[in-house]
Amino acid sequence: MATQETKVVDHIIASRRALLLGGGAALAALTLPKAAKAASTVASFTDNDILNFALNLEYLEANFYYLAAFGTTIDQPNAASIAAGGPTAGIPINGTGTQGTVTVKANPQVPFTTITAGSYATEVAIEEGKHVLFLRSQLGSYAVAQPALDLLNSFNGLASKAQIASSFDPFSSDAYFLVGAYIFEDVGVSAYHGAAPLISTTSTGKTILAAAAGIHAVEAYHSGLIRQSIFALDPTNSQGLLTITQQISALRSSVSDLVAPTPTAVSAVVDPTPDDYGVSDGTFTVSLANGASVPRTNITDATTNNVLGVARSTIEVLNIVTAGGAAIAGTKATGGFFPAGLNGVLS
């Protein structure tokens, strides 16, 4: 029989999960809010629902890197991906929900000119593909299908909203590929961090949490390397790459915080101010060997004291990847990289 103490612990765990999912206005009021955020929420969810939320994001990342490195989607293996350690057969993309196609320009393989960017693209493509395979293996018959993905119009729309340009092609050069990767990786890291407390405290949940923490670590390595690689290509911002990362970070922060235009919407998890940092704003410097100060970068996207990485709720992540599609309470988030929305309960 449950004691009073266990009842209290169970209540705290359930409340924390609800808060991070996007519900619980009363709990949100106990924190230090930056802004009230809102979107559709669900009455209940399972560990499989959380894994499927992650799987949707991994489908997006894996396809982006496969297209950049090998010129194909993940379900179409080629000699280059197999030689790099990828599966000899295409990665399955079927499952529950509506399976969609990938919208991308013709011949998307990036004409890499630097070893750093080309090697990064190849390694990460294989790793993201393995993340898809791993999550699908954990989910079994519960795995969602790959939804429709847009890797063409989404980038153009993002570039326009961020006031970078009217269009943006991440498959055109090393630098723009890294900027495109920058858009994804920081969001993936914050998504895994934010989803961790949602996983149940059962023995199975603990196993899932350990695996998710492992994926989170890999994504964090990717994110840090992207930031340093962008900085190495343009340390003085002569190409404007550092400015672009600042604009992207500002857009991600503002889009994630969009509020649903309805008084019945529930509050979502709150976050620090700001919750997104570009590679450099031009004021970061370091002195080498007591010499003149030279520019430096933000390797991490973390809290202001760099103690904790940024965590985002499912609603905030949905808002970013659907270009604000989660801002309308009670509706499926669509748009941006997911024109028809994500598959699964958390969508």
Structure description:
It is a single chain. The protein has 347 residues and is an all-alpha fold. It has one domain. It contains 10 helices and 4 strands, in the order ααααβαβααααββα. The strands form 2 sheets. It has a two-stranded parallel ribbon. Strands 3-4 form a two-stranded antiparallel ribbon. α3 runs antiparallel to α5. It starts with a helix and ends in a 26-residue tail after the last helix. The N terminus is likely disordered.
SSE-based structural type? mainly alpha
Number of helices: 10
Strand order of the largest sheet: 1-2
Overall residue-averaged pLDDT value:
77
For the termini, the CA-CA separation is 36 Å
Q: β content, as a range? A: under 5%
Biggest sheet architecture: 2 strands, parallel
For the record, the count of structural domains works out to 1
Quaternary form = single chain
Low-confidence stretches: 1-40, 260-271
Strand tally? 4
H-E string: HHHHEHEHHHHEEH
Overall outline = globular
Characterize this entry briefly.
47% of the residues lie in helices and 3% in strands. The chain has 347 residues and is mainly alpha-helical.
Give structural attributes.
two-stranded antiparallel ribbon; mainly alpha; 10 helices; two-stranded parallel ribbon; 347 residues
How is the topology of this model organized?
Blueprint: H1 4-21, H2 25-28, H3 47-70, H4 79-83, E1 102-103, H5 115-139, E2 149-150, H6 153-161, H7 174-195, H8 203-233, H9 241-256, E3 285-287, E4 293-295, H10 314-321
Parallel strand pairs: 1-2
Antiparallel strand pairs: 3-4
